[in-house]
């Protein structure tokens, strides 16, 4: 929801500067962001239980991820965008909007399946490793503290 809100804010800001975006471009942007979000949410679901890190609300701007997790995200973030990139490649290669939307639709279906699998995996991991997760969160400077 917040990602779509950002798109609408950016659309408003660009229109203030005289950049006229067509309805088709705005809808395409919303679709692409939705598909990208599926892959990023799947990655987030798995990573949150594999690398649990507590965050201190007073120091949230400093970040809380370990360097190993940050390196993993830096590697996986571009990979998660490859399905959408393939849609743009299909548009260019076939010079067809239909090819773009077909590949984007396929990427959305794969993303939804991947999200579902990631959610199931995250729930299973959280259930089986809840003690380790609680220990990791209590050792960090986050919302769970051990006295």
Characterization of the model:
This protein is mainly alpha-helical. The protein has a domain of 69 residues. Helix 1 packs antiparallel against helix 2 and helix 2 runs antiparallel to helix 3. The chain is globular, with a radius of gyration of 19 Å.
What tags apply to this protein structure?
0% strand; 147 residues; globular; mainly alpha
Task: Produce the secondary structure layout.
Elements lengths: L1 H15 L6 H28 L16 H14 L1 H13 L2 H32 L1 H10 L8
Helix pairs in contact: 1-2, 2-3, 2-5, 4-5
Q: What is Rg?
A: 19 Å
Helical content stands at over 70%
Q: Please provide the count of β strands.
A: 0
Mean pLDDT, nearest integer? Answer: 84
Topology order in helix (H) and strand (E) letters: HHHHHH
Task: Tell me about the largest β-sheet.
Answer: none
The geometry reads as: globular
Q: Structural class from helices and strands?
A: mainly alpha
| Alpha-carbon distance between the two ends | 37 Å
Q: What are the low-pLDDT stretches, counting only 5+ consecutive residues below 50? A: none
Strand content: under 5%
Number of helices: 6
Question: What's the quick description here?
Answer:
With 147 residues, this protein is an all-alpha fold. The chain has six helices and no strands. It is globular.
